[in-house]
Write a structure and sequence with these properties.
The complex is a heterotrimer.
Chain A (H helix, E strand, L loop, with lengths): L11 E8 L10 E8 L6 H12 L18 E4 L2 E4 L11 E5 L6 E3 L2 E2 L1 H12 L22 H11 L6 H4 L2 H5 L5 H13 L7 H8 L13 H5 L6 H14 L2
Parallel strand pairs in A: 1-5
Antiparallel strand pairs in A: 1-2, 3-4, 3-5, 6-7
Chain B lengths: L1 E10 L3 H12 L4 E5 L15 E2 L13 H11 L6 H21 L9 E7 L2 E7 L9 E2 L9 E2 L5 H15 L4 E3 L1 E9 L2 E9 L5 E11 L20 H7 L6 E2 L4 E8 L9 H4 L3 E3 L7 H4 L9 H16 L1 E3 L2 E7 L5 H7 L1 H11 L8 E10 L2 E3 L12 E3 L4 E2 L11 H22 L9 H19 L7 H15 L3 E2 L1 H17 L14 H25 L8 E2 L5 E2 H4 L1 E6 L9 E6 L19 E2 L2 H16 L5 H8 L22
Parallel strand pairs in B: 1-2, 1-11, 2-8, 11-19, 18-20, 21-22, 23-26
Antiparallel strand pairs in B: 3-7, 4-5, 6-7, 9-10, 10-11, 12-18, 12-24, 13-17, 14-16, 15-16, 16-17, 24-25
Helix pairs in contact in B: 1-4, 1-11, 2-3, 3-11, 5-15, 9-10, 13-14, 13-15, 14-15
Chain C lengths: L7 H27 L6 H11 L2 H4 L5 H22 L6 H14 L2 H29 L6 H9 L4 H26 L7 H37 L14 H4 L2
Helix pairs in contact in C: 1-4, 1-8, 1-9, 4-6, 6-8, 7-9, 8-9
The chains are: A alpha+beta, B alpha/beta, C mainly alpha.
Amino acid sequence: MNRIPLRPAARTLQIQVLRHNPHDPASEPHLQTFEVEEADTMTLFIALSEIRERQDPSLQFDFVCRAGICGSCGIIINGRPGLACRTLTKDLPDRITLAPLPAFELIGDLSVNTGKWMRGMSERLETWVHSRNLENLDIDTVEQAMEPELAEQLYELERCIECGCCVAACGTAQMRQDFVGAVGLNQITRFQLDPRDERTDAEFYELVGDESGVFGCMTLLGCEDMCPKELPLATQIAFLRRRMVCSG
Amino acid sequence: MQIIYTDVLVIGGGLAGQRAAIGAKRRGHDVIVLSLVPAKRSHSAAAQGGMQASLGNCFGASGDNEDIHFADTVRGSDWGADQEVVRMFTHTAPKAIRELAAWGVPWNRVARGDREITVDGKKHIISEPDAAHGLITSRNFGGTQKWRACYVSDGTGHAMLYTMSNQAIAANIPVHERMEALALIHSDGRCHGAIVRNLATGELLAYVARATCMATGGFGRIYRVSTNAIINEGMGAAIALETGVATLGNMEAIQFHPTGIFPAGILVTEGCRGDGGLLLDGRQHRFMPDYEPEKKELASRDVVSRRMEEHIAAGHGAHSRFGEHLWLDIRLLGADHINNKLREVKEICQYFLGIDPVSELIPVRPAQHYSMGGVRTDHRGESPQLRGLFAAGEAACWDMHGFNRLGGNSVAETVVAGMIVGDAMADFCDSQAGKLILSTALVDEFGQKQQRLLAGIANGNGSESAFELTRLMQETMTANVGIFRHRDRLEQAVSTLQELQQRARNIGLRSAAPGANPELVTAYRLQRMLKLAQCVAYGALQRTESRGAHYRADFPRRDDLNWMRRTLATWPDDEAGLPTLDYEALDIMRMELPPGWRGYGARDYIEHPQTSARQQQIDGILGDIPDADRHARQQALMPFRHLLPEHLRNNNERQGEEP
Amino acid sequence: MTSHPNRGPARADVLQSLTGLLLVLFIWGHMFFESSILLGKEAMHWVSKMFEGEHLFGKPYPLLVSVVAAVIFVLIAVHAILALRKFPGSYRQYQQFNAHMGALRHADTTLWYVQVITGFAMFFLASAHLFVVFLQPDNIGPYASSDRIWSGNFWIIYAPLLVSVHLHAGVGAYRLAMKWLPIPAASSRQVRRKLKLVMWGIVVFFLCLGSASLATYMVIGRDHAPYAGERYVPGKSQAPTGEH
């Protein structure tokens, strides 16, 4: 929907993008400013698409669902991480500075490799249900019952979209590359809560019981404040910390 | 060019692809998944409302079983579906959901005791029995007789995809992210893998595989207004088409979802209406009962979308500066329900519309949503023309949806087809036919061809803009190949697309940036998308009837006499302006459920003489076995279990059903 | 899993929090005792003698004060060493954090940095204070303290120490609560907002209390400057104040 009528007093937005193409030896990181006529209900997705289509076709960024569901479009918007697809330009000042999420490998311009980071995190923290009977599962019989409230609680924690905003908002993660971030700690609490996962607290301790895990967290709370899904990350990390301390 | 060898290559990291990968991996084969984006960002995550499976646990699902699910699906398809495949599907869906439950999906559960529901605009109190407490619950969806859509709030696809991806990680299946297949490597009717472009670096690679699975989803982005993610450009179907050998089935069958938010086209789930939400017009009058007294807002999607557009055309829409639309009212469901069961919907409304659906109406209008068509496969998911090429999920025309898909049947299909195709690929790899015999010269030849094509675009110095032509294609499709179709507009679409195809040969790039080069990506995808769009437009022009989502204003009746056929499109000549269409008959004499009225929508259709003959035959067969149970009766009419992998053939147990 | 996991990180985290908590409680208590000067020299004298155990044992044992100072010093040292693990480990990390904090404009992140700086400052300021108390435990009293502050110029240390310690303690207490308390997810944002309000309330309260006390000591110290070194004797009208 790029052909949306302009508002009577349309602004001209100055969109500054931190650009760098690591695949081009001649490229140096630099800020480039684009001017975009603001339109009604314009999101950064629309603005960036317009810049690529009309001004600079080489501009790199990632969008997939453009509905705030998939977590592809986390970028730094005026210093703070957020989902570009659902950030309305009307909520931003005339000058908008966009930069790629820090702490992730840069692919080019605003595009970073969150996928690689998240896969590494999943492998390291083994973010899946560990159960002995998964090998020979009987899927013909009625499923195991679960308390309805518990199922809802699990979904509450599973709403994480691995966008990387919590990692970008975390001072600890900026300083320590190996810190698993709120995204990782939250997933551990999700599996810890799940009765289908047979892992003990001692086993979870092996995964997050160190400085790169829950004891590395300094409770700066950037994660909680910048999470686009408003997950209760502070509560979850506090829970995990108590649990891991008591697990010994 | 680097060559990577594997047993099974799965193109697409959504639910279908990953489930197929897990299936093949469990059978001991090496599997690599290619994905345009990190697997957990696939469009499967956007499925909101639910997954259909006849568990029959909750109040409104009581008495449900595969038979009812089968009948709903066939009626929904407007008898365009392959009924054997529908049987395979409905039989396996409960198993799929139970497997996912064990793997970790936090399905919402039945809570014992009384609760309030909203039906037909009124509140009712229902009671859930103790015996069902804690079992997987389900909600009402359109076109179904039972509440059958099992759900995780309204983030069902997200929860399923995360669980599936995590299981794939547990199974140590590598996902090569940001990889796009540009061409299938094939010779003599056998597929050997794909030529692939790394979207981060721009480098070309070859993946050579014994079995290749297309699980690339739909192609909604050939339309301007679509609920689809922007990566849904149908490249899987397109490169299958470009083999000139593989066929695409029923490409004209495009679903429009009734409730895309207006004007952005972002989906809000059918669960809104399933849970009791209503559609209102410009005067805030509930209009659906006027058109569809039986199912009202919960008729199938094709019918509801058509009625909505009809109502707008009659001058009853609401007006906004973006154009006309209708309203979705979920206020009557209450804050508690919306905050718990429809929270993604609430978030979307807040962020994209700036409204709170607890107290405000949601502006909606139908938007392109799903492609029933895709790579034509047999019941095992293999292309009949290109051995070793499999397809699963929306990318496939396995054909369980016919001309209209029921809500919640697509997420279910992804997993079920993944289960079946994963096994089929493993069987294929184990068989003599699955041996890998090819020369690296062939791989080079295919690689060089892609290299030349890319270089041709990059150095073409033409005058056309890829972005502009893409926009023109999308606008043509939305304007002329939408919900209401007519010869004149379809002809116009076909000729515009042909013209765009010519112009697309004269694209000039402004950017020569090394690495990803998004402009180059738009350019080469455009040429392929135009072919898909042409299959849709031309197929729609040729099909002179109305069936399911394909509605011809100039041929408003379903025509079983002439059109009990599936469209098959091939594109054997790259230079040609049109696909070659062929048709495959659907055999009424083998149907378990012969064609009839769907229970909603138009009652008027042209009957096929075999319909009554088959009905008589069925009555006779059933009359001979009056005491048989439902499984035996079904078996007598249309056996299907032998088509399934052995471990999926058992009956499904249900709480409260006699075994 | 039968291997014994390394409990070190868990213990270190608990110990850091625990020492922090004890220090916070100590300093808040300390503030009430030292501000007894606002109630008059008599009250402050009584409190200082209490700490020397006079009310309990009949005669003062200044050694008790030295012991307390030593314990506090150990707590500070342990707390600081544990906290050092979290500090930027290199100039590069320091730069990264600085850039991050500057861009993010996020209160809790900035407050952590405030803690780093105040902690660093206190390592010197508090040490100096403790050192004196440890070596001259009997040198605490309405005149002794005032003379130290004014004539001994210790206000130059105490003023920045006052600000540092209360910012550090207040923010630390808030962070401790967020770190360990079981706050229900549903109300976590409201609870946090309230905690923060309480935190600022406490910080401001102690800064006011501390400043008033310090000012009082300074005024007494200034007036008592000619007699610096002379001790306060309760009940006896003292020369400097009696001259009015």
